[in-house]
């Protein structure tokens, strides 16, 4: 039997240290309310082997998966279906596998996402998923270390477009958009400064992958987080999302930032 890229698979493996007990980590990754505090803003979980997990980031970005490993405070795995059984070659199944480990008194979360095709057709999805998990595991660590038990207010806006990634990146993060300082040279660890309308924010850059992703902290939102994502789609139409996580911030303030973000995105995407 031949071994082609279409036959082979590849795996994402990322781990993060968290300042929390295994039990607290388990609550954050296995319960709907815990998941909503660092991962998907909407979530439902039917616990146990044979149960399910449903996650949503809004219209066109939702899905349900079957849980096939359930070991409280140790491990949870669910099976995702990419594509359709009606597609050529059928749907592709990938496994999202969280391991909670203790090493030298420190809690480690290890994420293994396996089953991605090694075909070049999957490169964009694979790279985007690596970027997404890099951010979300950092979000998990940040939530458990800085805001444990605090519900999250998600300030967000997601728009579909057919414009090139680099054009949208420049418009959204440039002077007429979020006005990110030193954008051309920005790197992880650098000071982060941006604005959402009349709201100015500062913090630290955590991750940059131009022209696709940017993540960092926002001091003015009680050490909140921002994540900007240019999503792959496999077609001419794709989605751009800005996601701001605020913990313990008064609703009057988050409502104002949400309104200003919506207005900003209206301007950036006025022409599609």
- SSE series: EHHEEEEEEHEHEEEEEH
Strand order of the largest sheet: 1-7-6-5-4-3-2
Strand content: 35-45%
The fourth-level CATH homologous superfamily of the largest domain is START domain
| Helix percentage | 10-25%
The total of helices stands at 5
- Looking at the structure, the CATH topology of the largest domain is Alpha-D-Glucose-1,6-Bisphosphate, Chain A, domain 4
Gap between N and C termini, in Å?
Answer: 47 Å
Give the C-alpha Rg. Answer: 19 Å
Q: Characterize the largest beta sheet: strand count, sense, and whether it forms a barrel.
A: 7 strands, antiparallel
Number of domains: 2
Total number of strands: 13
Class derived from helix and strand content: alpha+beta
Task: Give the tags.
single chain, 272 residues, alpha+beta, Alpha-D-Glucose-1,6-Bisphosphate, Chain A, domain 4, 2 domains, six-stranded antiparallel sheet, 13 strands, globular, disordered N terminus
Describe, in plain words, how this protein is organized in 3D.
With 272 residues, this protein is of the alpha+beta class. It has 2 domains: 138 residues, START domain (Alpha-D-Glucose-1,6-Bisphosphate, Chain A, domain 4), CATH 3.30.530.20; 117 residues, Alpha-D-Glucose-1,6-Bisphosphate, Chain A, domain 4 (2-Layer Sandwich), CATH 3.30.530.20. Helices cover 24% and strands 41% of the residues. It has 5 helices and 13 strands. The strands form 2 sheets. Strands 1-7-6-5-4-3-2 form a 7-stranded antiparallel sheet. The radius of gyration is 19 Å and the shape is globular.
């Amino acid at each position: 039997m031949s071994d082609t890229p279409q036959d082979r698979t590849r795996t994402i493996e990322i781990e993060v240290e968290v300042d929390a007990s295994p039990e607290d980590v388990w609550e954050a990754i296995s319960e709907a309310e815990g998941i909503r505090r660092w991962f998907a803003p909407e979530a439902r979980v039917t616990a146990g082997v044979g149960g399910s997990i449903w996650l949503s980031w809004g219209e066109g970005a939702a899905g349900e998966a079957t849980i096939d490993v359930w070991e409280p405070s140790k491990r949870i795995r669910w099976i995702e279906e990419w594509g359709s059984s009606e597609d050529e070659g059928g749907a592709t199944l990938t496994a999202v596998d969280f391991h909670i480990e203790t090493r030298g008194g420190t809690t480690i979360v290890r994420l293994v996402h396996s089953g991605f095709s090694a075909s070049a057709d999957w490169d964009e999805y694979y790279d985007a998923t690596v970027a997404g998990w890099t951010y979300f595991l950092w979000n998990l660590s940040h939530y458990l270390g800085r805001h444990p038990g605090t519900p999250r207010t998600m300030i967000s806006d997601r728009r579909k477009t057919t414009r090139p990634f680099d054009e949208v990146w420049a418009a959204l993060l440039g002077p007429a958009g979020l006005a990110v300082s030193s954008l051309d040279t920005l790197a992880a660890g650098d000071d982060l400064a941006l604005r959402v309308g009349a709201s100015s924010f500062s913090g630290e850059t955590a991750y940059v992958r131009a022209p696709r992703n940017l993540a960092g902290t926002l001091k003015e939102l009680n050490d909140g987080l921002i994540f900007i994502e240019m999503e792959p789609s496999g077609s001419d139409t794709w989605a751009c999302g800005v996601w701001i996580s605020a913990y313990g911030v008064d609703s009057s303030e988050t409502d104002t930032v949400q309104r200003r973000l919506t207005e900003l995105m209206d301007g950036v995407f006025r022409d599609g």
